[in-house]
Specification:
The chain has 106 residues and is mainly alpha-helical. The chain has four helices and four strands. It has a single domain, classed as MazG-like (Helix Hairpins, Orthogonal Bundle), CATH 1.10.287.1080. Strands 1-2 form a two-stranded antiparallel ribbon.
């Protein structure tokens, strides 16, 4: 599915984002370049979180997600579908809670 117009607002999809990015930046020649760029964006997200800049947190988190959509697309994956499948696994696991809002499965 490509992007959908809701009144005058465009609702983006993984495909519309990937189509836009390829049109602007060209085809991905090495998927690792997307990972490297996402890591740069994660550093910027970390800075925004440190500064508690809500607007910037939203923008940087979106940058990371856009890059993850593109990465998933390189391997023929639907990232939203992958999240659904992974959450089914996560919900069935037992978890060790760290106490800071994170944890790991046991």
């Amino acid at each position: 599915m490509t992007n959908v117009k809701n009144s005058t607002k465009v609702i983006e999809s993984q495909q519309s984002i990937c189509d836009w990015a390829e049109g602007i930046f060209g085809p991905v020649t090495d998927p690792r370049a997307l990972v490297t760029r996402a890591m740069t964006e994660m550093k910027e997200l970390d800075e925004a979180v440190s500064e508690r800049d809500r607007a910037e947190i939203g923008r940087e988190a979106a940058d990371v997600l856009i890059l993850l959509y593109r990465l998933a697309d390189q391997f023929g994956l639907d990232l939203d579908g992958e999240v659904q499948a992974k959450m089914a696994i996560n919900r069935a696991r037992q978890w060790s809670v760290k106490g800071d809002g994170t944890g790991s499965h046991v």
